[in-house]
Amino acid sequence: MESLFDTIAGLPVHPLVVHFAVVLLPLATVGVIASALFPKIRTRYLGLSVLGVFFGTGAAFVAKQSGEALAARVGLPVRHADLGTYLLITSGVFLLISAFWYWQGRTKKSYSNPLGLLASAIGIAVIGLSIITGHTGAQAVWLGKLQSKSSTSTGSAGGTITLAEVATHNSPDDCWSAIDGKVYNLTTWINKHPGGAVVIKALCGKDGSAGFSGQHQGQRRPADELARFYVGDLKSN
Questions:
Q1: For residue 196, what are the contacts with CB-CB under 8 A and spacing of at least 6?
Q2: pLDDT tens digits, one per residue of 66-94
Q3: Of 113, 98, 115, which is closest to residue 57 (Cα–Cα)?
């Protein structure tokens, strides 16, 4: 089952399905909440909204599983992964209550207002989690990658960067490290590192050659990952 959630045609499944969860699920949830507030909408669109919640919850499940598969390859921010789990659980509960409310109204020809209000309250939580989960995912992908040229090209002439310059990028929000004569901007990798963020934070603003070699000596995959964050060569003394 892992391969099913891993890749499709060489592309990771997660970014292909995650938008169904963070777009379809909130839209369908709004339909359920509107149905609780307005009887005319309830009569026409509650069934369709519940169906949308069903597919949105399914998408949240696939997004969670595919996210874990992607994390095994490139790492995944812990907070984003936790929020994905909370979203799946909350949307599952919301689906059950909304479906039961719809079924009760269809069979008894009368909808329970307290049940509709309960569904609405949980629906608000679903919408909030969808927004926050999507936002943390977008941060993991884009934060630090849309920087201006001045923020990523501060090296001296000839493309070399001094260790003193590296030392000015010494925080989790702006993390550079020198490794084996090259300088890397590790800011976006901190929360994705499979070994934990604290390992990368310890390298910020420093020469991390010893730490990297001690942990990954001779391993090709970490070296390939590191190459993605190359900024320039370290100026020799």
A1: none
A2: 887 777 666 556 677 788 899 999 999 99
A3: 98
Report the alpha-carbon distance of residue 187 to residue 192 in Å, rounded: 10
How far apart CA 57 and CA 51 sit, in angstroms, is 10
Of 133, 135, 116, the closest CA to residue 49 belongs to 116
Inter-residue contact 126 to 116 (CB < 8 Å): no
pLDDT digits (tens, 9 = 90+) for 125-175: 999 999 998 888 777 666 555 554 444 444 443 457 899 999 999 998 889
Q: Record the pTM.
A: 0.62
pLDDT number for residue 96: 97
- Residue 76 zone, left/alpha/beta (φ > 0; ψ -120 to 50; rest): beta
Q: How far is Cα 103 from Cα 109, in angstroms, rounded to an integer?
A: 10
Q: pLDDT per residue over 193-207, tens digit each?
A: 877 888 888 899 999
Tokens linked to 188: 């976006």
Identify the three-state secondary structure at position 33.
Answer: helix
d(CA 122, CA 140): 27
Tokens standing for 21?
Answer: 């969860």
- C-beta of residue 13 within 8 angstroms of C-beta of residue 6: yes
